């Protein structure tokens, strides 16, 4: 029987191939949409996992979350450094780490922070040691630099026309283990080095107003350029870092907070939601974004299923026409003694085989496409996007299987309606 | 070997007032060799379809050795035909993409497992019908060879009767007479009843009895002429 089916398919090679390709493409579309949406969702959820609570200056919640979790370069307003001082003292806080964005080196964001955050991201370093001096840096797993290499920080990004900070060259002291987050692409340096590079340290008391209102970007800092230059000479790369933040702490774009308990987290968020500060759970902000993403997925999936319906309709048409021309063959099979079940098995088996081949090919294509998209996303964001099948996909596959069986059996049954004599005359 | 007994057989097609076939009585003893003739449209093919169960009869009975196939459901008729009637048709109805051997055993293979004895018989029949290479692809055979393969296929299940519908009509004269000779010889050797629809005088000559049809009725029967 299989021999007969294959011989038959060989005769209609072109048509069979076209049907397989049609099914494969439409299945690939749904598979890609499903897998990619899941990859982005899981990947960013895992990336946000390490950041319980982010506090920044009043502004956009989404922007604050995206900047902290994905290190997206954007003009974040600065908030008063006293917030960090207060948080550091708070008994409900396990640790509060400042993050200072704005600089970059070789396309990697340079983030000023404290050793506590480095330890939180990577409890044990992959190699080297934690930064202990102003001129030292810990790099993310995806930064291609050896321990001991020099890093010349640049104000803003190279593509924004920023200038290089000549006053301080960092030395790589260690490398974090991979975290699967955007921070794998980051270069982490002591926050005080960033402050000093930008002339904010030490004069915070009288510089407060301008810091709080300023922006941690090129544009905002550009006009203070000459002013900054005056501070250049004061930076000593060998100076030990000080991670105690008092009231004179300069302004900063965000503080990552690790609350002691869930209740503390909610209380802190409540407290720091005010006129001058903003507190967000990145996971919550992302969930809101996923809802939008989910809507987009539903839409795409609906389109994908729509194309599948059209493809199946086209296939039905092809089969019905095909059956028309095959009446003679079916009549002959029956005339020479093939039982009805064999005829049904042959006709539906052929179709089912095409469905199966198209389905398998489609899954492979979709899986490959999702991998390609994820790889390109990971290359730009460093957020690991896991492309994986889940349990709920089984039900989708089962539905497809049932549909394929039903659709392949209909033409076979219709072929049996005619008597063999009439089929032979067709 | 099967005897045929047809009585009160009518076949009507929708939209036609007069029946296309109306045969009060036609008996053929087991082992008989019958030729059916008639102009086109005389009801020959309809009669063949009725007696082989390829079509549903309107009324009457078609008994093969005691089994009235007119009373059977379509599926049962198909099964009866598969087991008892060897069909040879004008257009061969062989299946491209398969070899000569595969074509011979296809009907059996589609209904059940091929027995080793059947496999041997298929090879033997192909040898008898003069097919030198059983594994040759069917579409590369000549028309005469194709009809020989079709004859081998008809005989595989040791049917009680061979029914051939214009088996030589699509062949040239020489090939046709070879095939005609083959069918008659094999029917005799295998001990089957033989019914052939044909215009071919050479083939008619080899058969014992001739029935002529016109307008769906028997207008001539050589056995009755002899009896009279």
Automatic annotation (TrEMBL), chain A:
Entry annotated with the keyword Manganese: no
Its membrane topology: Multi-pass membrane protein
Keywords from the named record: Cell membrane, Membrane, Transmembrane, Transmembrane helix
Pfam families (alphabetical): FtsX
Regions crossing the membrane: 299-321, 342-374, 394-416
ABC3 transporter permease C-terminal domain span: 304-417
Gene Ontology molecular functions: transmembrane transporter activity
InterPro entries in UniProt: ABC3_permease_C, Macrolide_Exporter_MacB
GO cellular component, one term: plasma membrane
Location in or out of the cell: Cell membrane
Family that this chain belongs to: Belongs to the ABC-4 integral membrane protein family.
Name listed for the protein in its UniProt record: FtsX-like permease family protein
Source organism (scientific name): Shinella kummerowiae
UniProtKB/TrEMBL annotation, chain B:
Record-level GO cellular component terms: plasma membrane
Domain ABC transporter, residue spans: 4-228
Coiled-coil boundaries: none
Residues passing through the membrane, by range: none
Keyword ATP-binding: yes
Gene Ontology molecular function: any one: ATP binding
Superkingdom in the source lineage: Bacteria
UniProt keyword Manganese, yes or no: no
UniProt entry keywords in alphabetical sequence: ATP-binding, Nucleotide-binding
Pfam families, sorted: ABC_tran
UniProt protein name: ATP-binding cassette domain-containing protein
Organism, scientific name: Shinella kummerowiae
